[in-house]
Amino acid sequence: MTETGLRHYLELTERFQAERSASAPEWLRAFRREGTEQLARQGFPTSKHEEWKYTQVGPLVSQAFAPVRTVHEADVQEAVARHALPGPGPRLVFVDGWFVRELSLLGGVPAGLTVRSLREALPEEGEALTEVLGRRGRAEESPFTALNAALLEEGALVRVAPGTVCAEPVQLLFLTLERRETPVLSSPRVLVMAGESSELTLVESYGAVGPGVSFTNAVTEAVLGAGAHLTHLKVQAEAETAYHVGGLHVEQGRDSRFASHLVSLGGALARNEVHTVFAAEGGECTLHGLYVGHGSQHLDHYTRLDHAHPRCSSSELYKGVLDDKARGTFHGRVLVRPDAQHTDARQSNRNLLLSEGAMADARPQMEILADDVKCSHGATVGRLDEQALFYLRARGIPRAEAERLLTHAFASEVVGAVPLAALRDQVETLLALKLPGAGEIRV
Amino acid sequence: MSTETLQELTRRQYSAGFVTQVESDTLPPGLNEDVIRIISAKKNEPEFMLEWRLRAYRHWLTLREPRWQAVRYEPINYQDIIYYAAPRQKPKLESLDQVDPEILRTYEKLGIPLEEQKLLQNVAVDAVFDSVSVATTFKEKLAAAGVIFCSFSEAVREYPELIQKYLGTVVPHSDNFFAALNSAVFSDGSFVYVPKGVRCPMELSTYFRINAENTGQFERTLIVADEGSHVSYLEGCTAPMRDTNQLHAAVVELVALDGANIKYSTVQNWYPGDEEGRGGIYNFVTKRGVAHRGAKISWTQVETGSAITWKYPSVILKGDDSVGEFYSVALTNHRQQADTGTKMVHIGRNTRSTIVSKGISAGHGQNTYRGLVKVLKSAEGARNYTQCDSLLLGSQCGAHTLPYIEVKNASSQVEHEASTSKIGEDQLFYCLQRGISREDAVSMIVNGFCRQVFKELPMEFAVEAQKLLSVSLEGSVG
Predict the structure, then answer these.
(1) Is the minimum CB–CB distance between B392 and chain A shorter than 8 Å?
(2) ipTM > 0.85?
């Protein structure tokens, strides 16, 4: 099955590249070709792959997903309104992976900040983009990154000049349309260059216009200069029939600070990867994640924190709430390299199982090769605390309501840490619809 | 700072290294069906054993050596290994006087004279000297209680129905590469059967010793605790110094029937190789127990020796209300590598498991904890608690923690906690300030770090383990 699936994707990328060979400069052709070659070499992972042990990509690979160019319909407006953050922007909106200028907000961009569609930026910026492009999101490290590289065309370029502090968040909104003929594949690539001592909050929102089978294969790469602060927020609220694979690859300069907040709600199968590397001393990294699954959703999370230099600290918290027959997977690796002394790394994964059929797999991993370090990790899987439930019920709160309260409290540790109030409200609304006790209203 | 003391400690040579001159009755190196037939014939085994060995061998031929582990070693040439070596003297012995005095002296050098153990510690010792049991004590006392404790080969001859019933039921011959190899060529080992409701009157102990150059040792241990019985088994090992790597692929199977209780303790101090990582034992062992209804299996291990330690003593919690425990101290010094941990598979309702693992790395040692906690759908109300702590002594070593937690039942509760740190300067300072030498202070702190595990060991072993740690752990202090 994966064999034919792989053939489909290889043919697809070759066709895609042939169509664009005339217009693309040599470096870009080589970049895409490398993607195809890496995809062919690696193939799609099976459960034999240690890093894909709990996730089968069969259903994703066996369907003939393909990029589709869309004429968007009127109801997109409503979805945009639902997912857009209030405020002046800037905001780029993508439909089925294609940038739509009319839906985007490009005004109010402060000096020193560049936000534009990657497709528009490619011819102008040229090879200079490879300073970030493919730097950390490497085709040789994952077949999905390779597939994204082979189909590279659209996405976003976000550049913050040194010393620029952006007060307003930049939002990238990716919407997938309801469709029945061709299941759509979108492969956005987001490049973030945060100059020295700059500050930026970037929001990536993934949503759907009605139910449909689609495949989003997104790659985001960010390079932080010395002393830069970048906060990356991702809300993945695609349809529960959709497939989502997302990779976030970050390189941190000296004394830089990076925070990632991930909320994973949608997708029949969703895999989120976060890879961060400390490329110099003194960096700080926070990784937060919340995944809430029901039905037969499969939500997979893989994080890799590379302490390659001394005196960096990282703190990671991933929480899962799993209902019905949903399965949540967390695999977090913390690597402390031989000379990375004075590393402080904390990692925690907590899972709440709400029903009999729900499943959770936790794999926190520490690989430590330096001695003067402080590292710890913890993982738990369990259900709601009977004593806490009893406490609430003794005070006249019905069981269902008590369960809802406690579940909400469990999730709020992650939601409450989202630094953007407007986004926090959005997530709260989505959660209220999704957590049990919300009646029949389910997105 | 303490670097010099630490280096001094770390440099300490293996003190149990010496070779005893005993003539061995050995087969030429190499493995084929004929070798297996010879092994089986030499041991006067019944037909079913030979069949079983051959089945395992044929399966082994279809297997490939695993590659996923976090330990690295030169490829093993399985045709270079001598698969059978027995001490020359053959006649059945009535008492210790009849044992080759050379062998007895070997034990004495190790500080574990059989007589002393016999007299003072009330422990029955089944000593395995190069694959054949040469001395068994306290048999009568055990026999009076109905407990069978004998060498595996004897059990095959005397109690074939028990062997046939239980052999391979926990670790089948097809389980993994090394278990298959062991099943084909195992030389000897121990067999224990504790009848219904019997509490074994003494701790059972086997002192393993590898001798004879180039002899791979393939032990096979089977312990069956019948309903409501209780047994504590001790296993300890040291080996002489030598340069060629020796493969040790043992299999241990535990069967705890309803309400039975098995406690299995190991102190392992095989030759770890020299400072450069030359020589040393490859300790690739498959250990697993099945706990039936209300039964309890407890593994305690102190692993300080071997160039490579690679094993996961596991418990299949098959029956309702069964309990599994794993307490481990693993120490790697010089170029030693360890990839060890456990598997707790919860199948029955209200099954409980506890894992406490302490890893200590020094020198260039690499220490990996790898553990699986699996809660199946049927394991209503299962409970697991895991704690893994690592201590790093030196900047060249590594500590890795790789737990796997798979939960398929919502009513279960699984907790995992791990930490990694080095010896606190403040703790060292506190001790030094009170006139305790740096060496003693380090040893004391490390012993304190391992206390949770040591207190699970039977008394005699706890003392030995602490001594061992202070000597070889004197490697845990880099």
Answers:
(1) yes
(2) no
Partner residue facing B410 (CB), from A341, A358, A377: A358
Within A66-134, residue ranges assigned H as helices are 76-83, 118-125
Give the separation between CA A37 and CA A314, rounded to whole angstroms. Answer: 35
| Domain count for chain B | 1
Q: What is the pLDDT of residue B270?
A: 78
Q: Which amino acid is at A90?
A: P
Is residue A386 less than 8 Å (CB to CB) from chain B? no
Q: What is the pLDDT of residue B86?
A: 63
DSSP state of A194: E
Please, are residues B154 and B46 in contact by the beta-carbon 8 Å criterion?
no
- Give the whole-angstrom CA distance, residue A216 versus residue A113: 27
How many angstroms separate the CA of residue B404 from the nearest CA in chain A?
5
Q: Enumerate residue ranges in chain B where pLDDT < 70.
A: 1-25, 86-139, 206-216, 237-245, 460, 470-478
pLDDT digits (tens, 9 = 90+) for B19-29: 555 555 677 78
The verdict on residue B477 lying in a domain is no
Please tell me the predicted confidence (pLDDT) of residue B89.
42
With an 8 Å Cβ cutoff, are A371 and B416 in contact? no
Contact of B103 with B87, CB cutoff 8 Å: yes
Q: Determine which helix (DSSP H) or strand (DSSP E) holds A366, and give its type and residue range.
A: strand A359-368
Are the C-beta atoms of residues A363 and A333 closer than 8 Å to each other? no
Closest CA to A405 of A415, A395, A394, A397: A397
CA separation for the pair A13, A35 (Å, rounded): 9
The alpha carbon of residue A400 is apart from the nearest alpha carbon of chain B, in Å, by 17
Distance in angstroms (rounded) separating the CA atoms of residues B192 and A391: 51
Please check whether residue B76 lies inside any domain of the structure: yes
Q: What values do phi and psi take at A202, rounded to 5? A: -120, 130
> Tokens 């497939």, residue?
A243
How far apart, in whole angstroms, are the C-alpha atoms of residue B315 and residue B260? Answer: 14
Q: Which residue does chain B place closest to A48, by CA atoms?
A: B68
Alpha-carbon gap, residue A370 to A343, rounded angstroms: 9
Give the distance, in angstroms, between the CA of residue B20 and the centroid of all CA atoms in the same chain: 23
**B453 at A interface, C-beta within 8 A:** no
Strands A113-117 and A155-160, bridge-based pairing:
antiparallel
Q: What is d(CA B181, CA B53) in angstroms, rounded to the nearest whole number?
A: 9
- Condensed to tens digits (0 to 9), the pLDDT of residues B406-454 reads 999 988 999 998 888 888 888 889 999 999 988 888 888 888 888 888 8
Q: Is A378 within 8 Å of B418 when comparing Cβ atoms?
A: yes
Identify whether B166 is part of a domain.
yes
| B426 contacts in chain A (CB < 8 Å) | none
Helices (H), B284-370: none
DSSP 8-state code for residue B74? P
| Helix or strand holding residue A400 (H, E) | helix A399-415
Residue B478 lies in a domain: no
3-state helix, strand, coil in chain A (%, to 5): 25, 35, 35
Is some CB atom of chain A closer than 8 A to the CB atom of B477?
Answer: no
pLDDT per residue as tens digits for the range B340-386: 999 999 999 999 999 999 999 888 889 999 999 999 999 999 999 99
Residue B145: give the domain boundaries. Answer: 3-472
Is the pLDDT reported for residue A157 higher than 90? yes
State residue B43's pLDDT score: 82
Q: In this structure, are residues A73 and A177 in contact, taking their beta carbons and an 8 Å threshold? A: yes
Q: Which of A232-236, A262-266, A435-439 has the lowest mean pLDDT?
A: A435-439
∠ CA A376-A382-A388, nearest 5°, is: 105
Which H or E element spans position B421?
strand B413-422
The alpha carbon of A18 is separated from its chain's Cα centroid by a whole number of angstroms, namely: 30
Contact at 8 Å (CB) between A154 and A117? yes
Give chain A's mean pLDDT. 91
**Is the CB of residue B347 less than 8 Å from the CB of residue B381?**
no
